[in-house]
Amino acid sequence: MSKYLIRGGNRLSGSVKVDGAKNAVLPIIAASILASEGTSVIEDVPWLTDVETISEVIIALGAEVRRESDSILHIDSQNVNEWIAEESLVRKMRASFLVMGPLLARMGQARVALPGGCAIGARPVDQHLKGFQALGAEVEVGRGHVQARVKGKRLKGTRIYLDIQSVGATQNIMMAAALAEGRTVIENAAKEPEIVDLANYLNAMGANVRGAGTDVIRIEGVESLRGANHTVIPDRIQAGTFLIAAAMTGGEVYVEGAISNHLKPVIAKMKEAGIGIEEDVAGIRTVGGPGNKPLDLKTLPYPGFPTDMQAQMMALLTVLPGNSLVTESVFENRYMHVAELQRMGADIKIEGRTAMITGVPYLTGASVTASDLRAGAALVIAGLGAQGETEVQGLHHIDRGYLTFEDKLRSIGADIERVE
Ligand SMILES: CC(=O)N[C@H]1[C@@H](OP(=O)(O)OP(=O)(O)OC[C@H]2O[C@@H](n3ccc(=O)[nH]c3=O)[C@H](O)[C@@H]2O)O[C@H](CO)[C@@H](O)[C@@H]1O
Ligand SMILES: C=C(OP(=O)(O)O)C(=O)O
């Protein structure tokens, strides 16, 4: 089992380049199986364990996936002929459920294991299923699987109102509707930049998707799609993580490639905390110290404060003077990092979905364990700012979302190593 050893206290400085977004590339790779001709070439693909898993899922369905270099993938889906997703792979990663919509549209039927809950919440898929049913599929859930079959020849365009602005449901329905007969309108759709990226990729494949990035998405179904070239958007969560890591150490770091428009709520809160931020077209820089004011924040669907940045921001708030309030409204159980931060000396009290964080002068290094991806990132941030040595276990969670994390952090001055 590998772990990080972090000797805290180094002030981070320099420049770090952000990779393509995990949460954009996963649906994009899933969408590739919609192409019945041609090859897709996807650039800025971060070769993370999750990316490897979704690639294995589509390979098992008959796609050919070839890595041209560290960050370019060629995907040929002409020979996709399976409609049952390999259960052992789907169980490895929730996002594998994103092959359900494309499979249903392309093959007329699909069987995918239910993704189940995880450390951050129950994470049901009822909105995905409601969408498939509205598009004219018969959906059966049982024995840990979802099986769906198109009634008639093709899915049929329809109007779907999502009860929750679910990112995954919006993506799954968009992908299924791309090959449906007629027009689909998704209302109360999620608006995340990763949805826009998927829509751009689908459109490059020959789809007709309009309105992505707003809460009404219109999709005119087409008869077939072909492979296309696409460059994945930069990872806003990775970028935000580096900005907060820099602030935690009172450092000045330029995060190259970060799109400030995608990070508005994070930047706004950092500024509110008194952290200097400079934005330009090519990236974002933190300047001038760790901040000195407490914050109130609530996680919300985009463009609200992202739940995927909550844990990292909380790590920073543990050392800002005063009382900060964090409310997690997206996932019901995303506070697993709290107990670990407390082991490092943080003063945090949780009541329901709200955490009150009273700033302490400093955290102290300890042995802590990541329970999920962003909890892991938060513990690394805490360790970078803490006095003494921190040991972070559970690196498989961190490896799901941060490529060569320790190398990037070392390149900006962190004292961090991965030991086996
Ligand atoms: C691979 C990927 O892109 N993952 C992101 C995606 O996850 P994911 O797509 O799973 O998240 P959703 O937006 O679907 O979930 C938001 C909320 O809706 C609930 N829900 C969702 C679907 C459904 O059918 N029924 C239902 O009740 C979930 O349990 C959760 O409480 O968006 C989340 C919210 O920004 C992020 O934290 C994840 O990093
Ligand atoms: C929760 C996350 O991912 P996933 O939906 O893949 O679990 C995340 O990226 O923080």
TrEMBL record:
Instruction: Name the catalysed reactions.
Output: phosphoenolpyruvate + UDP-N-acetyl-alpha-D-glucosamine = UDP-N-acetyl-3-O-(1-carboxyvinyl)-alpha-D-glucosamine + phosphate
Q: What class of enzyme is it?
A: transferase
Which pathway does it serve? Answer: Cell wall biogenesis; peptidoglycan biosynthesis
Its EC number is: 2.5.1.7
Q: Does the keyword Metal-binding apply?
A: no
| Positions annotated to bind UDP-N-acetyl-alpha-D-glucosamine | R94, R123, P124, V125, D126, Q127, D308, V330
Reply yes or no: does the keyword ATP-binding apply: no
Q: Where does phosphoenolpyruvate bind?
A: K22, N23
**NCBIfam families according to UniProt:** murA (TIGR01072), PRK09369.1 (NF006873)
The protein here is known as UDP-N-acetylglucosamine 1-carboxyvinyltransferase
